[in-house]
Amino acid sequence: MPLDDIRKVKLDKLKKLREVGIEPYPAVSERTTSVADALADFDNLVLSKKSLTLAGRIMARRGHGGLVFFDINDSRGKIQCVAKEDILGAEVFKFFNDLIDIGDIIEVSGILFTTGKLEKSIQAQSIRLLTKALLPLPEKWHGLQDVEERYRKRYLDLLMDDNVKAKFVKRAQIIQAMRDYLLKQEFLEVTTPTLQPLYGGASARPFKTHLNALDTDVFLRIAPELYLKRLLVGGFEKVFEFTTNFRNEGIDREHNPEFSAVEFYAAYKDYNWAMDLVEDMLVTVAPDRFKKPFRRVKFAELMRPHDSLEDAVFKEKVRPTLIEPTFVTDYPKDMLPLTKLKPGMADTVEAFQFYVGGLELVKAFTELNDPIDQRERFAAQENLRAKGDEEAQRMDEDFIEALEYGMPPAAGVGIGIDRLVTFLTDSHSLREIILFPMMRPK
């Protein structure tokens, strides 16, 4: 049946519900427990014969005559419900059969029991409609197969595939584990501006908008780095921020214009300390995927066979080979303009990037805190910009002024959460683990 015809049938049922005085969208549910909690305490609840009220979406339905079996799902589990005409009464049973469909959200009150086939179930003593769906769910095996449609209608993707939902639950758990780790290390969680008068902290094209209240142009954050380092000037020693960053760049399996990251900074530390911390954090967050020690190798050593120090050559020739957990250290100065030079080396900075499975997950430095050197680096970036490099960083006089008040030596780390979750969930693209990724207009 065409979708429009199905919707008309459901609208007709909606009308009939209202005609008999049934509100198809009541404001409050009287649910007493979740499906998961009911199943966890199933044996005790069966013995007690205690009546429960569960709520969820009807995902399957079968039966005939005076007996109907149907499955309801809530966010934490699924349970079979049994509707009998002789228990519900002829009027309620007819209402359920005629006007309630797969996809509707209902409330079921009754007692738990086990069927003859040992299926844990609830015997419905009453049924109440909570939400009448006007569009049908995709077929379990034949619907929502188009990948782009899955991303555009993620709500259906989540409803129809428990594996998809599990990925986003795991994503939340990973972020919480990272936050817990940093708090345990005595970092302070802070919030810095998303709208910024001058973008900085990374090499990227920004999104630009206009702030009407001040009649001025502002930029969406490409990174929180320069604000977090201002906090080190202000006397905080350990700070971190989970952020959404925005970069007006391409879209592919490793990039989304809007992405999640965590950055953290520690005064009186350097990149060697940061390497140890990142290694310990990742092993703590995902002990089943990471084991100490991680490989550590210098950038120049990896590039020697290619007779180059160009980042483009590294990305093409070297990065795809970095499958095992690897810290790549000591980068050319021109690649990282916010990073402190290695002592005695004019062109190499104290920095590392962490790779696994060919993905760059972490970037970290010993932070540049010399305001004169920083001004020279910014000036070099402005020269690149004048020559057409739209991703070059801008001269930030306010940040340089902050450095002139004195920023302690420090280590800084940025971790791409989307890429980390992609790796830890064995996903093939960032779009698999971003709930609503950016899509081309239809």
From TrEMBL:
Boundaries of every Aminoacyl-transfer RNA synthetases class-II family profile domain copy: 174-441
EC number(s) on file: 6.1.1.6
GO cellular component: cytosol
Reaction(s) the record says it catalyses: tRNA(Lys) + L-lysine + ATP = L-lysyl-tRNA(Lys) + AMP + diphosphate
Record key words, sorted: Aminoacyl-tRNA synthetase, ATP-binding, Cytoplasm, Ligase, Magnesium, Metal-binding, Nucleotide-binding, Protein biosynthesis
InterPro entries: Aa-tRNA-synt_II, aa-tRNA-synth_II, aa-tRNA-synth_II/BPL/LPL, Lys-tRNA-ligase_II, Lys-tRNA-ligase_II_N, Lys-tRNA-synth_II_C, NA-bd_OB-fold, NA-bd_OB_tRNA
Co-factor: note: Binds 3 Mg(2+) ions per subunit.
Source taxon at top rank: Bacteria
Major subcellular site: cytoplasm
Complex and partners: Homodimer.
Family the UniProt entry places it in: Belongs to the class-II aminoacyl-tRNA synthetase family.
Protein name, as recorded: Lysine--tRNA ligase
